[in-house]
Design brief:
Blueprint lengths: L1 H7 L3 H5 L11 E5 L13 E8 L15 H25 L6 H5 L4 E9 L9 E6 L4 E6 L5 E5 L2 E4 L8 E4 L1 H6 L9 E4 L7 E9 L29 H11 L5 H6 L2
Antiparallel strand pairs: 1-2, 2-3, 3-10, 4-9, 5-8, 5-10, 6-7, 6-9
The protein binds 2-oxoglutaric acid and fe (ii) ion.
Fe (ii) ion binds next to loops.
Family: Belongs to the iron/ascorbate-dependent oxidoreductase family.
Organism: Castanea mollissima (Chinese chestnut)
Protein name: Fe2OG dioxygenase domain-containing protein
Length: about 260
Protein backbone atom coordinates (compact mmCIF):
# COMPACT_ATOMS: atom_id res chain seq x y z
CA UNK A 1 0.00 0.00 0.00
CA UNK A 2 2.93 2.34 0.64
CA UNK A 3 4.27 1.61 -2.83
CA UNK A 4 0.90 2.31 -4.45
CA UNK A 5 0.63 5.52 -2.44
CA UNK A 6 4.13 6.48 -3.60
CA UNK A 7 3.03 6.02 -7.22
CA UNK A 8 0.01 8.29 -6.76
CA UNK A 9 2.01 10.88 -4.79
CA UNK A 10 4.19 11.51 -7.85
CA UNK A 11 3.73 14.72 -9.86
CA UNK A 12 0.96 14.83 -12.37
CA UNK A 13 3.41 15.02 -15.31
CA UNK A 14 4.94 11.67 -14.38
CA UNK A 15 1.62 9.86 -14.02
CA UNK A 16 -0.06 11.44 -17.02
CA UNK A 17 2.31 9.57 -19.36
CA UNK A 18 0.44 6.40 -18.40
CA UNK A 19 -3.01 7.93 -18.57
CA UNK A 20 -5.68 6.38 -20.80
CA UNK A 21 -9.37 5.69 -20.83
CA UNK A 22 -9.15 3.21 -23.70
CA UNK A 23 -11.08 -0.03 -23.42
CA UNK A 24 -8.55 -2.41 -24.90
CA UNK A 25 -6.68 -2.27 -21.67
CA UNK A 26 -3.26 -3.91 -21.71
CA UNK A 27 0.01 -3.48 -19.83
CA UNK A 28 -0.03 -0.55 -17.42
CA UNK A 29 -2.85 1.97 -17.24
CA UNK A 30 -3.32 5.06 -15.15
CA UNK A 31 -6.92 6.19 -15.16
CA UNK A 32 -9.64 8.05 -13.34
CA UNK A 33 -13.32 7.46 -13.93
CA UNK A 34 -12.95 4.93 -16.75
CA UNK A 35 -16.72 5.34 -17.26
CA UNK A 36 -16.81 9.13 -17.33
CA UNK A 37 -19.39 10.35 -19.92
CA UNK A 38 -21.31 7.10 -19.56
CA UNK A 39 -22.48 7.32 -15.98
CA UNK A 40 -24.49 10.01 -14.22
CA UNK A 41 -21.74 11.30 -12.01
CA UNK A 42 -18.00 11.38 -11.71
CA UNK A 43 -16.49 9.59 -8.74
CA UNK A 44 -13.57 10.41 -6.51
CA UNK A 45 -10.62 8.17 -7.20
CA UNK A 46 -7.62 7.53 -9.44
CA UNK A 47 -6.29 4.09 -10.30
CA UNK A 48 -3.11 2.44 -11.45
CA UNK A 49 -3.98 -0.83 -13.19
CA UNK A 50 -1.40 -3.44 -14.13
CA UNK A 51 -2.23 -6.52 -16.20
CA UNK A 52 -0.31 -9.61 -15.15
CA UNK A 53 -2.16 -12.28 -17.06
CA UNK A 54 -2.87 -13.51 -19.72
CA UNK A 55 0.57 -13.27 -21.33
CA UNK A 56 -0.81 -11.24 -24.22
CA UNK A 57 -1.88 -8.42 -21.90
CA UNK A 58 0.86 -8.77 -19.31
CA UNK A 59 2.84 -5.62 -18.55
CA UNK A 60 6.53 -5.96 -19.25
CA UNK A 61 8.48 -5.64 -16.04
CA UNK A 62 10.14 -2.42 -17.17
CA UNK A 63 6.74 -0.87 -17.94
CA UNK A 64 5.63 -1.17 -14.32
CA UNK A 65 6.43 2.12 -12.55
CA UNK A 66 9.63 1.69 -10.62
CA UNK A 67 8.24 3.19 -7.40
CA UNK A 68 5.98 0.17 -6.97
CA UNK A 69 7.43 -2.51 -9.27
CA UNK A 70 9.04 -4.82 -6.75
CA UNK A 71 6.09 -4.61 -4.35
CA UNK A 72 3.51 -5.11 -7.05
CA UNK A 73 5.20 -8.22 -8.42
CA UNK A 74 5.56 -9.63 -4.91
CA UNK A 75 1.88 -8.92 -4.22
CA UNK A 76 0.97 -10.65 -7.46
CA UNK A 77 2.49 -13.91 -6.26
CA UNK A 78 1.01 -13.65 -2.77
CA UNK A 79 -2.50 -12.70 -3.82
CA UNK A 80 -2.52 -15.42 -6.50
CA UNK A 81 -1.78 -18.05 -3.82
CA UNK A 82 -4.72 -16.77 -1.78
CA UNK A 83 -6.99 -16.81 -4.82
CA UNK A 84 -5.97 -20.33 -5.76
CA UNK A 85 -6.72 -21.64 -2.28
CA UNK A 86 -10.06 -19.85 -2.23
CA UNK A 87 -11.07 -21.17 -5.65
CA UNK A 88 -10.33 -24.67 -4.42
CA UNK A 89 -12.50 -24.15 -1.36
CA UNK A 90 -15.32 -22.60 -3.38
CA UNK A 91 -15.28 -25.59 -5.76
CA UNK A 92 -15.26 -28.05 -2.92
CA UNK A 93 -18.09 -26.14 -1.30
CA UNK A 94 -20.22 -27.01 -4.32
CA UNK A 95 -19.19 -30.66 -4.12
CA UNK A 96 -17.27 -30.39 -7.40
CA UNK A 97 -13.74 -31.27 -6.27
CA UNK A 98 -10.97 -28.76 -5.68
CA UNK A 99 -9.95 -28.12 -9.28
CA UNK A 100 -13.23 -27.17 -10.96
CA UNK A 101 -13.06 -23.37 -10.77
CA UNK A 102 -9.38 -23.34 -11.70
CA UNK A 103 -10.08 -25.65 -14.65
CA UNK A 104 -12.84 -23.31 -15.78
CA UNK A 105 -10.19 -20.61 -16.03
CA UNK A 106 -10.68 -18.32 -13.05
CA UNK A 107 -6.93 -17.74 -12.83
CA UNK A 108 -6.56 -16.89 -16.54
CA UNK A 109 -7.02 -13.12 -16.22
CA UNK A 110 -5.27 -11.21 -13.49
CA UNK A 111 -5.31 -7.46 -13.02
CA UNK A 112 -3.91 -5.57 -10.03
CA UNK A 113 -5.44 -2.17 -9.39
CA UNK A 114 -4.00 0.32 -6.91
CA UNK A 115 -6.76 2.80 -6.10
CA UNK A 116 -6.16 6.21 -4.56
CA UNK A 117 -9.10 8.06 -3.01
CA UNK A 118 -7.90 11.57 -2.28
CA UNK A 119 -9.23 14.08 0.23
CA UNK A 120 -12.72 15.08 -0.84
CA UNK A 121 -13.88 18.54 0.26
CA UNK A 122 -17.58 17.72 -0.26
CA UNK A 123 -17.98 13.98 0.33
CA UNK A 124 -21.76 14.23 0.43
CA UNK A 125 -21.82 15.17 -3.28
CA UNK A 126 -20.09 12.12 -4.71
CA UNK A 127 -18.74 8.66 -3.85
CA UNK A 128 -15.31 7.08 -4.07
CA UNK A 129 -16.59 4.26 -6.28
CA UNK A 130 -20.17 3.60 -7.34
CA UNK A 131 -22.11 0.57 -6.11
CA UNK A 132 -21.25 -2.45 -8.24
CA UNK A 133 -20.38 -6.10 -8.21
CA UNK A 134 -17.07 -7.49 -9.47
CA UNK A 135 -16.83 -10.12 -12.18
CA UNK A 136 -14.74 -13.05 -10.89
CA UNK A 137 -12.89 -13.40 -7.59
CA UNK A 138 -11.35 -10.33 -5.93
CA UNK A 139 -8.65 -10.14 -3.27
CA UNK A 140 -8.57 -6.69 -1.67
CA UNK A 141 -6.30 -4.91 0.76
CA UNK A 142 -7.24 -1.50 2.22
CA UNK A 143 -5.50 1.02 4.45
CA UNK A 144 -6.88 2.47 7.67
CA UNK A 145 -9.03 5.28 6.24
CA UNK A 146 -12.16 3.21 5.65
CA UNK A 147 -15.11 3.89 3.38
CA UNK A 148 -15.67 0.47 1.79
CA UNK A 149 -19.20 -0.80 2.32
CA UNK A 150 -21.08 -3.95 1.34
CA UNK A 151 -24.80 -4.37 0.90
CA UNK A 152 -26.27 -6.75 3.43
CA UNK A 153 -30.05 -7.21 3.80
CA UNK A 154 -30.62 -4.01 1.83
CA UNK A 155 -28.38 -1.96 4.08
CA UNK A 156 -24.88 -0.64 3.54
CA UNK A 157 -22.49 -2.06 6.10
CA UNK A 158 -18.95 -0.75 6.72
CA UNK A 159 -16.08 -3.10 5.97
CA UNK A 160 -13.92 -1.92 8.86
CA UNK A 161 -10.23 -1.87 7.97
CA UNK A 162 -8.33 -4.48 9.98
CA UNK A 163 -4.54 -4.27 9.66
CA UNK A 164 -3.26 -7.18 7.58
CA UNK A 165 -6.73 -8.45 6.72
CA UNK A 166 -7.84 -9.23 3.17
CA UNK A 167 -11.35 -8.68 1.89
CA UNK A 168 -12.62 -11.21 -0.65
CA UNK A 169 -15.37 -10.40 -3.12
CA UNK A 170 -17.38 -13.01 -4.97
CA UNK A 171 -18.22 -11.75 -8.45
CA UNK A 172 -21.12 -12.21 -10.86
CA UNK A 173 -19.61 -15.09 -12.86
CA UNK A 174 -19.26 -17.16 -9.68
CA UNK A 175 -22.86 -16.41 -8.73
CA UNK A 176 -24.07 -17.45 -12.20
CA UNK A 177 -21.96 -20.61 -12.44
CA UNK A 178 -22.95 -21.69 -8.94
CA UNK A 179 -26.58 -21.04 -9.85
CA UNK A 180 -26.96 -18.68 -6.88
CA UNK A 181 -25.27 -20.97 -4.32
CA UNK A 182 -22.74 -18.17 -4.01
CA UNK A 183 -23.95 -14.61 -4.29
CA UNK A 184 -21.91 -11.74 -5.67
CA UNK A 185 -21.44 -8.89 -3.25
CA UNK A 186 -22.60 -5.37 -3.99
CA UNK A 187 -20.09 -2.87 -2.71
CA UNK A 188 -19.14 0.78 -2.92
CA UNK A 189 -16.64 3.18 -1.41
CA UNK A 190 -17.75 6.43 0.19
CA UNK A 191 -15.81 9.62 -0.44
CA UNK A 192 -14.25 10.93 2.75
CA UNK A 193 -13.11 14.29 4.00
CA UNK A 194 -10.07 12.59 5.50
CA UNK A 195 -6.74 14.36 4.95
CA UNK A 196 -5.08 10.98 4.60
CA UNK A 197 -5.86 9.37 1.24
CA UNK A 198 -7.54 6.00 1.17
CA UNK A 199 -5.48 3.34 -0.60
CA UNK A 200 -6.66 -0.04 -1.74
CA UNK A 201 -4.83 -2.71 -3.69
CA UNK A 202 -7.19 -5.00 -5.51
CA UNK A 203 -6.36 -8.14 -7.49
CA UNK A 204 -9.07 -9.24 -9.90
CA UNK A 205 -9.00 -12.91 -10.93
CA UNK A 206 -11.17 -13.70 -13.86
CA UNK A 207 -12.02 -15.89 -16.81
CA UNK A 208 -10.50 -15.16 -20.22
CA UNK A 209 -12.16 -12.05 -21.53
CA UNK A 210 -11.84 -12.26 -25.32
CA UNK A 211 -13.57 -15.33 -26.71
CA UNK A 212 -17.08 -14.82 -28.02
CA UNK A 213 -17.50 -18.55 -28.61
CA UNK A 214 -16.80 -19.68 -25.04
CA UNK A 215 -20.19 -19.85 -23.42
CA UNK A 216 -20.46 -19.91 -19.64
CA UNK A 217 -23.47 -20.60 -17.50
CA UNK A 218 -24.75 -22.47 -14.47
CA UNK A 219 -22.61 -25.59 -14.05
CA UNK A 220 -24.54 -28.65 -15.32
CA UNK A 221 -23.36 -30.70 -12.32
CA UNK A 222 -25.45 -28.44 -10.08
CA UNK A 223 -28.69 -28.64 -12.05
CA UNK A 224 -31.61 -30.96 -11.34
CA UNK A 225 -35.24 -30.93 -12.48
CA UNK A 226 -36.04 -29.20 -9.17
CA UNK A 227 -33.20 -26.73 -9.55
CA UNK A 228 -32.96 -25.67 -13.18
CA UNK A 229 -30.53 -23.03 -14.45
CA UNK A 230 -31.43 -19.55 -13.24
CA UNK A 231 -29.37 -17.86 -15.97
CA UNK A 232 -28.96 -18.09 -19.69
CA UNK A 233 -25.52 -18.72 -21.10
CA UNK A 234 -23.21 -15.78 -21.71
CA UNK A 235 -19.80 -14.89 -23.10
CA UNK A 236 -17.23 -12.71 -21.39
CA UNK A 237 -17.26 -10.04 -24.15
CA UNK A 238 -20.99 -9.77 -23.48
CA UNK A 239 -20.36 -9.23 -19.77
CA UNK A 240 -17.67 -6.64 -20.44
CA UNK A 241 -19.79 -4.86 -22.99
CA UNK A 242 -22.32 -4.07 -20.29
CA UNK A 243 -19.54 -2.93 -18.01
CA UNK A 244 -18.08 -0.54 -20.57
CA UNK A 245 -21.33 0.75 -22.03
CA UNK A 246 -23.12 1.43 -18.76
CA UNK A 247 -20.25 1.92 -16.37
CA UNK A 248 -20.44 0.55 -12.88
CA UNK A 249 -23.96 -0.35 -11.98
CA UNK A 250 -25.47 -2.62 -9.42
CA UNK A 251 -25.99 -6.24 -10.47
CA UNK A 252 -26.68 -5.07 -13.98
CA UNK A 253 -25.42 -8.20 -15.71
CA UNK A 254 -26.96 -10.66 -13.26
CA UNK A 255 -30.36 -9.07 -13.88
CA UNK A 256 -29.84 -8.96 -17.60
CA UNK A 257 -29.26 -12.69 -18.05
CA UNK A 258 -31.54 -14.02 -15.32
CA UNK A 259 -34.16 -16.31 -16.81
O1 LIG B 1 -11.21 0.42 -3.20
C1 LIG B 1 -11.91 -0.51 -2.80
O2 LIG B 1 -11.86 -0.92 -1.65
C2 LIG B 1 -12.89 -1.16 -3.73
C3 LIG B 1 -12.51 -1.09 -5.18
C4 LIG B 1 -13.46 -1.84 -6.04
O3 LIG B 1 -14.53 -2.18 -5.65
C5 LIG B 1 -13.07 -2.22 -7.39
O4 LIG B 1 -12.04 -1.78 -7.89
O5 LIG B 1 -13.82 -3.01 -8.02
FE1 LIG C 1 -15.28 -3.79 -6.87
Amino acid sequence: MNAIKAFHDQPHEVKSKLYTRAHDREGVIYTSNFDLYRTNAATWHDSLAVWLSPEKKRAEEKEIPEVCRKELLAWDLRSAKVAEALLELLSEGLGLGAEKFKDLGFLVSKLIVGHYYPYCPQPDLTVGIRPHTDSGLTVLLQNQVGGLQVKHDDEWVDVEPIPGALTINIGDTIQIMSNDKYVSVEHRVLAKASKEPRISVVTFFDLETESDTNYYGALPELLTPDKPALYRKFTMPELLEGFYSKGLENKFFIQKIRL
